[in-house]
Amino acid sequence: MAATRGEFSSRFGFIMAAAGSAVGLGNIWGFPTQAASNGGGAFLLVYLVLAFCLAYPALMAELIIGRHAHSNAVQALQLISRGPISKFIGGATGIAGLIVASFILSFYAIVSGWMMAFCINAALTFLDMGESAAWLVEFSLTRNLIFMCLFMLMTIGIISQGVQGGIERWSGRLMPMLIIMLVILVMYVLTLEGAMEGLKVYLLPDFGRVMSPSLIIAALGSAFFSLSLGVGTMLIYGSYLKDEENLPLVGGYVTLVDIGIAVMAGFLIIPAMYVAQHNGIQIFNEAGALISEDTLIFTVLPNLFNTMGTTGLLVSFAFFFLMTIAAVTSSISMLEVPVAYTIENHGAERQKAVWIIGGVITAISATIIFNFEMLFGLVIELTTRYSQPLLALLLCVFVGWIWNREGLLQELKKGNKDVESTFFWKIWPWYVRLVCPLIIGVIFVNSLWG
Ligand code: TRP
After folding, report:
1. Where does residue 405 rank: exposed (0-12), middle (13-18), buried (19+ CB within 10 A)?
2. 27 CB less than 6 Å from ligand 1?
């Protein structure tokens, strides 16, 4: 089977793909809006600490298991287990991961569809066809359904082309484009009147809030979602890595790109809010808190773009195009999880697996759209707030307690002969064994009461 498996052709290809998975709506929408509603700089600070100290070690756990097994999470977790009980739990964890990944994609595709609709709206308005395009930015069943399906088709199209021809090729094209566009947008927004006030809010932490449990829970959730942890996404990408690759290093690059882009998106979104305020747009709600989440992206920012005339249309197009790119390189990584399992465990052909699973996820997504009020928030909460941290915790337990230390070391040595003498090897095994499960557990239990 090993000969027929896909593999990333280069280190650059892997980093773009894994960073593409990590960088998504979570970074460009989630992180800045969470920061906006959780005290700006205070959130940034906690986020940085948690991302390096917890999310990076957990990412490494996934990459190492995946690369060692060169297979999907279900097989991989069974492979590193010794007894029948841990084998069973391993298989179940893998299956749970692929189900959660599918549900995450089902809501992600809806939001991504909105981004596409807003992007097309800006283009049409620019071409003076704004009247006919108005429905694109109005919340309706038809619009939601059409754009969710379009987005799913794009995702399915890329994944059907396989690891190198699909994932690696598209991530390698889209990620550099995303970074360039983001930098240009940030530079532009920072020149506008009012931006400096936003910058202050973003960069000066209110230390009084740093220890607030709700802030810590939000920051951890944000970091885990952002690095695509728990559901086997990074595990499967790791499984397509060559044995010669130095894992702690490439994992570090991916983490840096992910965090870097989240932080940079903060430089775009938070100053933009204060520019909007400067232009007379309301950015605080009745309770006195900064407007965040969907109202921010789909109301405050479009209102801001409207006050900027023709330039605003360009900026709006660029912004929503950026969002769409970020979303596609993430959604493909979610779809790859159940697809790889179906190919490897059930002998399915890629094309067939992609279309069937893509179809099922589209149907789930449509069900959410038809019952939006009831299901949308619920699915997000169940997957990202509860399932993801719990699964990430289980993966750390597998690496820290079930897999033997020698096996772990041998795997790391494949790409770095001297790994034994590195800081990473001295700290990390204990870290995933004790610190990660403990802290994730404590924060998780806390969030149950939250
Ligand atoms: N990390 C992506 C983002 O920030 C989303 C994502 C991709 C994801 N794959 C995932 C989230 C797997 C959770 C699990 O938007």
Report:
1. exposed
2. yes
